Structures are given as C-alpha cells and as structure tokens.
C-alpha cells in the first residue's frame, strides 16, 4: 500500500467524494425518472467529469509509483491525441507527430527518476529547440512557424501541464505530513473542479458582464468574484485537512487555482471557437471530451506546483 493511501485524511476525502458522486448519480436518475422533461444536462456533465477524474486518481493513489506515472502518461497521450484530432494538420506534418508523442514517455521518465531539472526544461526548452529542426528536415519549410507553434502549444498543455499532477502525486510524504503527494493532488483537483462549477452556476444566475466578450464563454465578472471567493474559502478549509499550507498560503493558493482555472478554460474555449467547434454541440464535444475535462487543470496544475516550490 502506498504511504499516502494510509493517510486518514486522504482516505476520508476520497471516500466522501465517491459517496457524494454515487449519491448525485442516483439522485439524477431518480429526478429524470420522475420528470423526464427536466433539463439535467449541466449537472450530468459535471457528475460525469468528476467520475472521469476521480476514478483514475483513486487508482493512481492505490497503485505503485510506477503505475501511477504510467496512468498519468496515458492521460497525457489521450489528451494529446485528442488535441491533434481537432487541429488541422497537413499531411506532411504528420511525420512530426511521432516525435511529439515520443516526448510523453521521456517527460514521465524524468518524474520516475525524480530528475526535476530535466522535467522542467525538457518540453519548454529542449523540445522547443529540436522540433523545428525535424520539420525542416522533412523539407516543407512553408508553415514552419504555424506547425511548430501548434505542436509545441499542444505539448505544453497536454503533456507538460498534466505531468505536474504526476509529479505532485509521487512526492515523498515528508513534503506533506497531512496527506503526502496525494493530499496535494486531491486539494488541487477539488478546488479546481468546484471553481469550475461555481463559475458555471454563478455565470448564469448572477452574471451579466462578460470577462471574455469575444469568446463564447459564460465567465462573467460577477461570477469571477463569487467563484474565486468561494475557492479561496474552500482552500482555507481543505488546506488544514490535506496540506501543510498556512492560512496566508492557502488564500494565495486559492487565488492561484481560481484565476488559473479561468484562464485555462478561456484558452480552450478560444481554441474551440477558432476551430468552429460549438460549445453546445454534443457530437463535436465528443472530440474534445478529455480536453473539456482537463482544460483548467492543464493550467492550474503547473501554477499550483510552482506555487508550492516557492512557498
């Protein structure tokens, strides 16, 4: 058994989440049976999102360090594959994609070896410098900037961003006596997802002034204040249970996660809008299922990770 799994705080938190998810799932089915006409698409979306995130996380916590890293590497692979499926890429550029996928095992190898320096610079620096060379060697110089920019952006979000969750999860328990690396990851995911839900609800209920008027986004300034305030409040409560953060550090962490999540969601909304993918189109959303579920985490994971490094 992993040391962090033995933490009562982690066990209690995971058990509570699974219980509430099961209760929400059953309640949704009961309500639909009683009133089939009621629109439960938004609650259903968030319930499914939580199941998609929590089950792999529970498996990662329960298994060995190596299997945990492999699990997150698989998530990065699926996210990158999904990203490439919605990005228009020329036939000649597809030969470069192999090298993009090859970065996944290498990036997670640094985590397995606890080689932090290489973990930090591999994709942002080394891959950034090598990728254009591979495009040039193919012989198609036209569109070099666009091709390398799109692939690098995909790697930064789906591989580099998500890999910070894996690094947090395998941190030795000494860095977090309250819950080990699992405590940090649970703390981050809980705040991130609750922040998303708060934005979705408040944006419809009390929001009028859009934060991103050029995007098909429901983020409003009223919702931003409400959701961020709620995230900071929950950060204070959960920090004592799952992290060693002080009250001031918890407030700052809540701000980092709350605001970072908004940015991540806005960037993904902008990406889909640029590609002509409608927010409410179910068929098209099937092609961005992982990206929809992980968009804000791709930003909050590295932000929270480096916040912990400097505190």
SSE diagram, text form:
Elements: H1 8-34, H2 41-62, H3 65-86, H4 94-112, H5 116-138, H6 144-169, H7 180-205, H8 221-242, H9 247-274, H10 282-285, H11 289-294, H12 297-310
Helix pairs in contact: 1-2, 2-3, 2-7, 3-4, 3-6, 4-5, 4-6, 5-6, 6-7, 6-12, 7-8, 7-9, 8-9, 9-12
Structure commentary:
With 311 residues, the protein is an all-alpha fold. The chain has one domain (3-310). It has helices spanning 8-34, 41-62, 65-86, 94-112, 116-138, 144-169, 180-205, 221-242, 247-274, 282-285, 289-294, 297-310.
Question: Keywords for this structure?
Answer:
311 residues; mainly alpha; 12 helices
In short:
The protein is mainly alpha-helical and 311 residues long. It is built from 12 helices and no strands.
Largest sheet: none
Overall shape: it is globular
Helix content: over 70%
Number of domains: 1
Oligomeric state of this protein: single chain
Which secondary-structure class do the elements indicate? mainly alpha
For the termini, the CA-CA separation is 29 Å
On the 0-100 scale, what is the average pLDDT? 85
Beta-strand percent range: under 5%
Number of strands: 0
Low-confidence runs (pLDDT<50, min 5 residues)?
280-288
Question: Radius of gyration, rounded?
Answer: 20 Å
| Number of helices, where a helix is a run of at least 4 consecutive DSSP H or I residues | 12
**Which H/E pattern describes the elements?**
HHHHHHHHHHHH
């Amino acid at each position: 058994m992993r040391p962090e799994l033995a933490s009562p705080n982690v066990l209690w938190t995971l058990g509570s989440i699974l219980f509430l998810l099961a209760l929400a799932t059953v309640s949704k089915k009961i309500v639909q049976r009683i009133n089939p006409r009621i629109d439960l698409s938004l609650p259903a979306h968030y319930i499914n999102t939580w199941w998609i995130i929590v089950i792999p996380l529970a498996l990662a916590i329960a298994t060995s360090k190596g299997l945990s890293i492999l699990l997150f590497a698989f998530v990065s692979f699926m996210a990158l594959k999904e990203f490439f499926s919605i990005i228009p890429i020329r036939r000649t550029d597809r030969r470069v994609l192999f090298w993009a996928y090859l970065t996944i095992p290498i990036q997670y190898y640094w985590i397995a070896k606890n080689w932090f320096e290489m973990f930090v610079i591999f994709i942002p620096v080394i891959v950034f410098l090598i990728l254009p060379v591979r495009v040039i060697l193919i012989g198609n110089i036209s569109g070099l900037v666009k091709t390398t920019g799109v692939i690098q952006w995909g790697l930064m979000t789906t591989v580099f961003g998500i890999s910070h969750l894996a690094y947090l999860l395998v941190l030795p328990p000494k860095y977090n006596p309250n819950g080990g690396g699992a405590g940090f990851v649970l703390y981050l995911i809980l705040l991130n997802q609750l922040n998303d839900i708060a934005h979705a609800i408040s944006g419809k209920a009390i929001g009028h002034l859009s934060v991103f008027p050029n995007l098909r986004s429901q983020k409003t300034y009223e919702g931003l204040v409400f959701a961020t305030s709620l995230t900071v409040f929950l950060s204070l409560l959960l920090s004592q249970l799952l992290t060693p953060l002080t009250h001031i550090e918890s407030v700052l962490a809540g701000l980092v996660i709350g605001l970072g999540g908004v940015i991540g969601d806005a960037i993904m909304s902008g990406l889909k809008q640029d590609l002509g993918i409608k927010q409410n189109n179910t068929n098209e959303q099937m092609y961005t299922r992982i990206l929809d579920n992980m968009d804000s985490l791709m930003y909050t994971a590295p932000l929270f990770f480096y916040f912990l490094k400097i505190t």
